[in-house]
Specification:
The complex is a heterodimer of chains A (112) and B (113). Chain A has 112 residues and is mostly beta strands. Chain A contains no helices and eleven strands. In chain A, strands 2, 4, 5, 9, 10 and 11 form a six-stranded mixed beta sheet that branches. Chain A has a five-stranded antiparallel beta sheet with strand order 1-3-8-7-6, with no helix packed on it. The N and C termini of chain A lie far apart (36 Å). Chain B has 113 residues and is mainly beta. Helices cover 0% and strands 50% of the residues of chain B. Chain B contains no helices and eleven strands. Classes of the chains: A mainly beta (112), B mainly beta (113). Chains A and B meet through strand 4, strand 5 and strand 10 of A and strand 5, strand 9 and strand 10 of B.
Chain lengths: 112, 113
């Protein structure tokens, strides 16, 4: 079973709206990361949040981490058509050598 | 221009044939990884290597083989023993001890005819 599970599986919004997606995981983590994947392409690293951090910002991205609930959220503010992509969370577990375990992803469609 | 390259971008294979996917990096990373991605799914780890001439199985290694003869290169062979090889394959690399910060190649889409 996957360490990270994302919700929703798909999201459709209008340009300018905010997009929020969630990631839940099962075991204690060292850090959690979010990646973006455009259709048929490789993954691009967006942001990393460590287990002792609660919130992090990068441009229009805001990530929160609640280790007590074993969950994280990614918020994309003022979305653009170019934000259309799949977004994946990945967890790094120290006991596993910090190798990444990926969730199933959220497919985001931003309509112009 | 540093990065990870994968070739080919698209690959077609007949059933029963072995096929090798190429992954090269010029980031001077010690560790390299192969992932498989099925449609609408996340990534699953096939094999990884932390140093030349050494590699370990990931979660779904059956039907795959790798070699790591050079630091820059980590080819993946999809053998005829892999029952359902049609998928998107992604290669990644990281600095040693930094498996949590991986850089990804553009991927190879393998289709078995």
């Amino acid at each position: 079973s996957q360490q990270g599970e994302e919700d929703p599986q798909a999201l459709s919004i209008q340009e300018g709206e905010n997009a929020t997606m969630n990631c839940s995981y099962k075991t204690s983590i060292n850090n959690l990361q979010w990646y973006r994947q455009n259709s048929g392409r490789g993954l691009v690293h967006l942001i990393l949040i460590r287990s002792n951090e609660r919130e992090k910002h990068s441009g229009r991205l805001r990530v929160t981490l609640d280790t007590s609930k074993k969950s994280s959220s990614l918020l994309i503010t003022a979305s653009r058509a170019a934000d259309t992509a799949s977004y994946f969370c990945a967890t790094a577990v120290k006991a596993a050598g910090n190798k990444l375990t990926f969730g199933g992803g959220t497919r985001v469609l931003v309509k112009p | 221009d540093g990065g990870i390259t994968q070739s080919p971008k698209y690959l077609f294979r007949k059933e029963g044939q072995n096929v090798t996917l190429s992954c090269e990096q010029n980031l001077n990373h010690d560790a390299m990884y192969w992932y498989r991605q099925d449609p609408g799914q996340g990534l699953r780890l096939i094999y990884y290597s932390q140093i030349v001439n050494d590699f370990q199985k990931g979660d779904i290694a059956e039907g795959y083989s790798v070699s790591r003869e050079k630091k820059e290169s980590f080819p993946l062979t999809v053998t005829s023993a892999q029952k359902n090889p049609t998928a998107f394959y992604l290669c990644a690399s990281s600095a040693l001890g930094r498996a949590d910060t991986q850089y990804f190649g553009p991927g190879t889409r393998l289709t078995v005819l």
